[in-house]
Specification:
Strand order of the largest sheet of chain A: 2-1-3
Shape of chain A: elongated
GO molecular function (chain A): cullin family protein binding
Oligomer: heterodimer
Radius of gyration of chain B: 21 Å
Helix content of chain A: 40-55%
CATH class of the largest domain in chain A: Alpha Beta
Distance between the termini of chain A: 35 Å
Protein name (chain A): SKP1-like protein
Order of helices and strands of chain A: EEHHEHHHHHH
Pfam family, one (chain A): Skp1
Organism (chain A): Erythranthe guttata (Yellow monkey flower)
Family (chain A): Belongs to the SKP1 family.
CATH superfamily of the largest domain in chain A: Potassium Channel Kv1.1, Chain A
Structural class of chain A: mainly alpha
Strand order of the largest sheet of chain B: 3-2-1-24
Number of strands of chain A: 3
Number of helices of chain A: 8
Largest sheet of chain A: 3 strands, mixed
CATH architecture of the largest domain in chain A: 2-Layer Sandwich
Chain lengths: ~160, ~375
């Protein structure tokens, strides 16, 4: 929509909670999934994205517009990505990694998973279980043995009061 | 799966901690596939392990330096590691490093009752002692060791035992040496027969292209000898010879050191005037391709040691009074890193490069068997 040159083609994307978004085709085709639909000629009407909710899709479109406005300069793109992700909490990042995977956007996927890794790096085992929804299947004895074996890796872990 | 992609981006310390999350995470993180792709993905920082011995060569201080991947060489952080072995091995020599593992030995030319060889992964902070070697002659002998990881999978250590010829005044070492090889898949030493090595090698090695290399010499007559390079392919377990250029073949072997230089391997020659000539073999095993790249001289102080070439081609030196110094051959400028400034009072310092933080070695260092305590 913001594009000023020529007559840009605009696509309409629909989230799984029925929100509609307009986005320039040139930005939307950063997603290989969308690009394939466009190339197959099935992007005439509304493109339904069944695995992405409106909140996440809004975020992804902000990213699409932002990154496609930057000329081919990897440094600038990287700093845009860093800035874009800097204020996102874990839940948002987790939604985005799923969306990036579904939309097949490898640059976003890489950046988000690196960001998640950075957020996780100093977190406790309990934090990781909660955030990833993982059930602890160790017996207390087994868990204690694993922790004892690699005691040094538990130094410098943050306390779990934030996200 | 998406979780794996995220885990791949974590540093080793976090990964090891997260083996406690659940059993499936532990089996993912300790799997061979995960470890080897983590090893090749680690492109953010490189690690250098700085090892200092005191004047008695006792392993004294270990610093782990993080080096930013971008040239020019710069250290982004440094931390101290504890010496991890308290079980009776005191005199350590670094045999070599490969895939993030270090091989250490307390074997010297002195007669020891037993020689201990230890493989250590500083990132994972695990180590293991190899079984005692089999070849332990009664006579005075000298030992050279080689270390490598075959196909990124099996640890191999090769041990060359030369016996002194104590006849009259002639203190030469007898060739061929007796040779045995340790491989961690079988977990034992195995003797190699039919070895036809005529070179006597120095105990400093360079592991390159799956082949261990040592500088060696062979007497021509009573006064002269010829230098060459002995090569041992750790997969095929065969010896061969790599020829030196004539200028280096006739040099005093004590002035030479073999090193890996970027994507090639080479020899550094140091002379009395404190100049270092850097030679590389541009095409492996082609004698004519030996080229003198450049000479390092007239630096800010006396060069005590040239121990490593960084990927970018910069040389890492120890300079008297300045400690660790990086020399850029293009600008010819030395850069003082400000680390371990008082180094020169130490007798030995060695530097080992790891391309990334690795989880190696799968089997005995981090795998299920280790967790189960088999090698404890």
């Amino acid at each position: 929509m913001a594009a000023e040159t020529g007559t840009p083609t605009t696509l309409t994307l629909k989230s799984n909670d029925d929100e509609l978004f307009s986005v320039a085709e040139s930005a939307a085709i950063l997603s290989v999934t969308i690009r394939n639909m466009v190339e197959d000629g099935c992007a005439g009407g509304v493109i339904p994205l069944d695995n992405v909710d409106g909140k996440t899709l809004a975020s992804v479109i902000t990213y699409m517009n932002g990154i496609s406005a930057i000329p081919a300069d990897e440094e600038k793109k990287k700093s845009y990505r860093d800035k874009f992700l800097s204020d996102k909490d874990f839940e948002t990042l987790a939604d985005m990694v799923l969306a990036a995977n579904y939309l097949n956007m490898s640059c976003l996927m890489d950046a988000v998973s690196a960001k998640i890794a950075q957020v996780m790096e100093k977190k406790s085992v309990g934090w990781v279980r909660r955030k990833f929804g993982i059930e602890n299947d160790y017996t207390p004895e087994e868990e204690a043995a694993v922790k004892e074996e690699h005691k040094w890796t538990f130094e410098g872990v943050e306390t779990d009061d934030d996200n | 799966e998406l979780q794996i992609q995220i885990l791949q981006k974590l540093p080793v310390k976090s990964l090891i901690r997260f083996t406690a999350v659940c059993k499936s995470w532990r089996s993912i993180i300790t799997s061979t596939d995960f470890i080897s792709s983590h090893l090749s993905n680690g492109k953010n920082d490189s690690l250098l392990l700085l090892i200092r011995g005191d004047r008695h060569n006792i392993l004294d201080q270990l610093s782990l330096l993080k080096v930013a991947e971008n040239v020019p060489f710069d250290v982004s952080s440094s931390s101290q590691l504890e010496v991890p072995f308290d079980d009776g091995i005191e005199y350590y020599k670094i045999v070599g490093s490969c895939d993030g593992l270090l091989c250490l030995s307390d074997e010297t030319s002195r007669k020891l009752e037993h020689s201990h060889i230890t493989i250590w992964n500083p990132c994972v902070r695990n180590h293991l002692h190899l079984p005692l070697p089999n070849i332990n002659p009664e006579e005075d002998h000298s030992v050279a060791l080689g270390f490598g990881v075959a196909s990124h999978a099996y640890i191999k250590v090769v041990r060359l035992v030369y016996i002194y010829n104590n006849l009259g005044d002639d203190f030469r070492l007898i060739v061929p040496p007796q040779v045995e090889v340790f491989s961690d898949d079988k977990w034992r030493w195995r003797r190699l027969t039919g070895v036809s090595v005529t070179l006597t090698v120095m105990d400093w090695q360079a592991f390159f292209n799956g082949v261990v290399h040592w500088l060696g010499f062979e007497p021509i007559d009573a006064y002269n000898s010829r230098n060459s390079i002995l090569a041992f392919d750790i997969v095929d377990e065969v010896f061969s010879e790599v020829m030196l250029p004539d200028e280096l073949a006739s040099e005093d072997i004590a002035h030479l050191r073999i090193l890996v230089i970027g994507e090639s391997f080479g020899v550094v020659k140091h002379d009395r005037d404190d100049a270092y000539d850097v030679w590389v073999m541009k095409e492996y095993c082609v004698k004519e391709s030996w080229t003198k790249l450049y000479t390092i001289d007239h630096l800010i102080g006396k060069i005590e040691n040239l121990f490593k070439f960084w990927k970018s081609g910069e040389a890492l030196l120890e300079v008297k009074g300045y400690g660790l110094v990086v020399y850029n051959p293009e600008t010819k400028m030395p850069k003082v890193l400000g680390i371990n400034g008082g180094l020169s009072r130490w007798n030995s310092l060695e530097l080992h490069l790891r391309h990334c933080e690795s989880l190696k070695h799968r089997r005995s260092f981090f795998g299920e068997e280790y967790v189960a305590g088999k090698h404890r």
